[in-house]
């Protein structure tokens, strides 16, 4: 595995890197993680912590609050205490090592840091995180400025969230949480295809509002890399709500609904609901009841729907933006036949 890029004043050779870097970074934005809360981010926003790319720096790039840093930076503390940020990992796992990267923070890095872990089910709000039972992954430890500070972790407990603490304040460019994914069994063995995938033949069949971006973005392959790669509506000033309808790749049953609000922070929907219709639209079924959503979060919901559907409608309340919609399930015999006929009728080679 290629190690992160390093400047000469940081770790100089591949041999200097700890062994755990060959494991995936569970805190990377590329894994679907999110920074759900921080007590302070006056100088630089908390979301920078989990960018997959290396931090950068440009001299004399000043904003209203001072030099612009590619990292998380808090104001100078004038009272006892410490600053913290909570990261929801992209996948639950066992943490084997942590890197606290203070790149370009020289006179404003924290002298000490600590990292705790927790197991939190579902998608709690910031207020609901209060009282979380945190346990140590990295005890309070000294760090250097403008450096890759690495820590081996000796803990076999499952972790879904980590809390990075700066003692007392300062700036950190990146947080890397390397470990082994432990898959949630409720999502294993229930599905084998994304019925709402554009590359499987699904398409948009209706939409209430596409002011900022196309609803087709919802069913594109891969993950959104920024807010503009999702679907976003204008702000509603009435009592209604926005919606989008998807013609599925073929009739089938849904086992998992994925609603991804990644990059939508102040403009994600408050709630969402998913319903389905049969191919002739004679039968409607509720797939996911109206459910609260969190900003900048990849939500996955197991559903126990056995009804075969050919169309699905996503209702968002009241408006807002969504990065991706995925409906993971199984094609019915009729669905597989429809795909085969579509391929053959379009002149595809025999299958």
TrEMBL record:
InterPro entries documented for this protein: Allantoicase, Allantoicase_dom, Galactose-bd-like_sf
Keyword field: Hydrolase, Purine metabolism
Allantoicase domain sequence ranges: 32-181, 201-330
Pfam families registered for this protein in UniProt: Allantoicase
EC number: 3.5.3.4
Catalytic activity, reaction form: allantoate + H2O = (S)-ureidoglycolate + urea
Keyword Iron assigned: no
BP terms from Gene Ontology: allantoin catabolic process; purine nucleobase metabolic process
Signal peptide: none
Family statement: Belongs to the allantoicase family.
Name of protein: Probable allantoicase
